[in-house]
Amino acid sequence: MSEVQRLEWDFRELVENSDDIFIVVDRAYKIRYISSSVLKLYGIQPIALLGQDIFDYVKVDRVDEIKECLTTAIGQSYEFGLELKKGLKTYFDVHVSYARQEDAMHGFVLKLHDITKKKTKEKELIHTNKQLDQVI
Fold first, then answer.
1. Element (H, E) at 135
2. What is the DSSP string of 5-17?
């Protein structure tokens, strides 16, 4: 196995065994790659998502906001919710970078880290604080 093949294998193992979801989309926002963690975490076959528009999983009124984040938040993280399954909202911390090939921008690489439990706890704390304020 050559050094390049070994690095590719190591990289694939790193991505495929992560609890984060890695997505590569082209300039038209079509999914070109999605890590198998989407199957492990949500029961969705990655191959079923290839070629789909990433905005099929975002509320219509948030599409423009997220497109702007994708183009302006390179190298930064931001939070947003997706409906991966009907009725199941999942919140992610998303890190965006360019997908480059031969020094040309071909799309975006997204790393999605599930923060749903954190968001749920935050909402519970806010609700509890409001109740305490009412009592006081």
1. helix 116-135
2. HHHHHHHHHHHHT
SS (H, E, C) 30-89: EEEEECCHHHHHHCCCHHHHCCCEHHHHCCHHHHHHHHHHHHHCECCEEEEEEEEECCEE
Q: Which of 17, 74, 13, 24 is nearest to 52 (CA)?
A: 24
Q: What is the pTM of this model?
A: 0.77
Give the phi and the psi of residue 64 in degrees, each rounded to 5: -60, -40
Residue-range domains of the chain with CATH: 19-135 (3.30.450.20)
Over residues 71-114, the pLDDT tens digits come to 776 777 888 877 766 677 888 998 988 887 666 667 889 999 99
CA distances from 16 to 9, 20, 78 (A): 10, 9, 23
